[in-house]
């Protein structure tokens, strides 16, 4: 699939639609179906105005170790939000196509990827509730899943990346739990996770 998605001789729209379909299927379709079937509005999971600024600022703080890791390990190549495998091809395409494609990237890789963590975490916490303010089974599960779904290694920098990724995702979800606002999760995946 990666060779198809990155093949520049194929038009960008089918490559992006395939990639977005798989990504949405992993981080969006399930929560959307569950919310529709159970008649649960997205606002129930923290897409609200209350504590918006606090949620975003605290989420950024949780991602600072991961950002520091990117710089310290020499992986920083510039700041580019919504950077996925074919963002460059999308930006080089014609204006109407590039606008549609970038909107799709924002929705799938920004909104749904971040919001998916908030919903999954809350669903797990309803089933396995912890009275300890710092122990959160939903955040723990989501952080472990995030680490396992992305490539990692066991070198020194690989271990640092695992630890900082865990801090970022776990922290982001603790912030969501404490503020009641999931926009920090969405912000992180729009402007931090795929941007560095």
Short description:
69% of the residues lie in helices and 0% in strands. With 196 residues, it is mainly α.
Kindly describe this structure.
By secondary structure, this protein is an all-alpha fold. The chain has nine helices and no strands. It starts with a helix and ends with a helix.
Low-confidence stretches: none
Biggest sheet statistics:
none
As a percent range, the share of helical residues equals 55-70%
Counted by DSSP, the helix tally is 9
SSE run = HHHHHHHHH
Query: What is the mean predicted local confidence, pLDDT?
Result: 92
End-to-end Cα distance? 23 Å
Overall shape = globular
Give the C-alpha Rg. Answer: 17 Å
Structural class: mainly alpha
Number of strands: 0
> Strand content of the residues, in percent?
under 5%
Task: State the main characteristics.
196 residues, mainly alpha, globular
Topology:
Blueprint: H1 2-5, H2 12-26, H3 29-37, H4 52-72, H5 87-92, H6 95-127, H7 137-149, H8 156-179, H9 183-193
């Amino acid at each position: 699939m990666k060779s198809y998605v990155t093949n520049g001789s194929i038009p960008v729209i089918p490559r992006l639609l395939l990639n977005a379909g798989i990504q949405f299927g992993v981080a969006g379709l399930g929560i959307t179906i569950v919310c529709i079937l159970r008649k649960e509005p997205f606002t129930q999971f923290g897409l609200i105005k209350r504590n918006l600024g606090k949620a975003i600022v605290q989420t950024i703080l949780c991602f600072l170790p991961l950002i520091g890791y990117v710089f310290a390990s020499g992986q920083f190549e510039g700041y580019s939000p919504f950077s996925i495998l074919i963002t460059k091809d999308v930006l080089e395409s014609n204006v109407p196509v590039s606008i549609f494609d970038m909107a799709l990237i924002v929705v799938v890789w920004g909104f749904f990827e971040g919001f998916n963590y908030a919903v999954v975490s809350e669903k797990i916490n309803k089933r396995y509730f912890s009275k300890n303010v710092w122990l959160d089974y939903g955040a723990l599960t989501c952080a472990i899943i995030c680490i396992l779904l992305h490539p990692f290694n066991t070198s020194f920098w690989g271990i640092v990346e695992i630890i900082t990724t865990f801090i970022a995702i776990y922290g982001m979800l603790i912030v969501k739990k404490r503020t009641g606002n999931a926009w920090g999760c969405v912000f992180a995946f729009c402007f931090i996770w795929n941007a560095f």
